[in-house]
Amino acid sequence: PNSSKKASNSFLSLVPPRDDPYVSDVGRVSAPTLDDVQLPPYPANLPFTTKRKLVREQEMQYLLDLQHSDGLALSQLQTLWNQERGTDAEIELMDVDDMLRSANGADSAVLERAKSKLLALVQEHGIYFAEPIYRLASIATMEEAWERATEYYKIVLAVKPWHHHALSGIVNAYAHQDRATDAQQWASQRLPKMLLSVDQPPRATRRRKEWIQRMVTLAKQRYDLHEQQSMMAMFGPADDTWKQHIEERTNPHGLRHDSPSWQ
Q1: 3-state SS assignment for residue 196
Q2: C-alpha atoms less than 13 angstroms from C-alpha of 100 in its C-beta half-sphere
Q3: pTM listed for this prediction
């Protein structure tokens, strides 16, 4: 859905520059884990309808498009994420973005109102709607509440490990806590840059292609799991007794006893 408000990338200004001291160490650090983040099962009130499945496929296609460019694919991903819970939720997110731009990190009353709006979105849509939580992390960053920002970023990344803004944000948060090892580990997970050349169009490096393929695979695994959890919550565990019933009513030639061919 398209809202009447233009999609915003206002939090790009909060993402730390890619040329930081952690980039040079990415080949020598282990991958971070999110073992301390326990997500609840995917809710039954968000069934995987045909429309929702198409949105998931679109998201994976935008990830694949990162092999060719940054700007358009990243913008399309951000717009898709903002629209994940419909027009009303997107408009609320855009209102929060406007509030934060006007506050510029200095007006605590505006920040509190923005937090209230975001927490209401989380209450209504749950933590699998990552964008309100990402904005809560961004507000914590503006307030220099680095530990709280870290916890919010970790939730976003548990839901969407390919969330490029959150990946940069968590590096920034750990760096401000003087946790260099954690910052290095998360820096190794960020989207690698395109290879730029004066006389050739930008192209993806081997590391970038590997990152994209890994994230597309992760996305498919996550969404398959979410669909299973949603089905389980709606209908309960799968009942395989029908298989035995069919076997008992089938003769050695493969004909069912109640089929016309048997009579």
Answers
A1: coil
A2: 27
A3: 0.77
Q: What is the pLDDT of residues 151-163, one digit of tens each?
A: 999 999 999 999 9
Average pLDDT over residues 190-209: 87
Scan for tokens 């939580």, then name that residue: 133
d(CA 103, CA 115): 13
Contact 135, 115 (CB under 8 A): no
Alpha helices in the chain (DSSP H): 50-65, 71-82, 87-103, 108-125, 130-142, 146-159, 164-176, 180-187, 206-235, 241-248
If phi > 0 it is left, if psi is from -120 to 50 it is alpha, else beta; for residue 104 that is left
Give the integer Cα–Cα distance in Å for 71 and 189: 19
CA dist., res. 242 & res. 249, Å (int): 11
Distance CA 214, CA 63 (A): 10
CA 164 to chain centre: 9
Are the CB atoms for 166 and 190 separated by under 8 Å? no
Integer Cα distance of 220 and 74 in angstroms: 19
CB atoms within 10 A of CB 235: 10
Query: Would you say 163 and 74 are in contact if contact means Cβ atoms under 8 Å apart?
Result: no
- pLDDT at residue 20 greater than cutoff 50: no
Locate 196 and state its tokens. 């730029």
Q: Which tokens in the block code for residue 125?
A: 């849509």
What is d(CA 176, CA 158) in angstroms, rounded to the nearest whole number?
A: 21
